[in-house]
Amino acid sequence: MSKFSTQIYSLLKQVPKGKVTTYKALAEALNSTAYRAVGGAMKNNPYAPEVPCHRVVSSDGSIGGFRGSRSGKDIQDKIKMLEKEGIKIKNHRIVNFDQVFFQPIKQSAQPFAQL
Description:
Elements: H1 3-12, E1 21-22, H2 23-29, H3 35-43, E2 56-57, H4 73-84, E3 89-90, E4 93-94, H5 97-100
Parallel strand pairs: 1-2
Antiparallel strand pairs: 3-4
Helix pairs in contact: 1-3, 2-3
């Protein structure tokens, strides 16, 4: 696993139930513009659901992808998971996105296993 993925997973653990963050916010918390690499890390997340990749959405408030898919059963599963946590979704977009957005804060680097 790459250092980047490990750092992304550590940041994502900060996002509480009932909140979402974005691929862009996670990348920027690491002073990066590798938004697609964040998506790749989510797709390959071996720690789900402890590391809640379903809470990562697109910067425009749309659902984004899940398990490597952008439609179908996987996206419906993501929507159900988010709704179970209190996130409202309409037409594949987060309702009141600004109110449920969580900005991850970069913490000192530490190995994922110690988190």
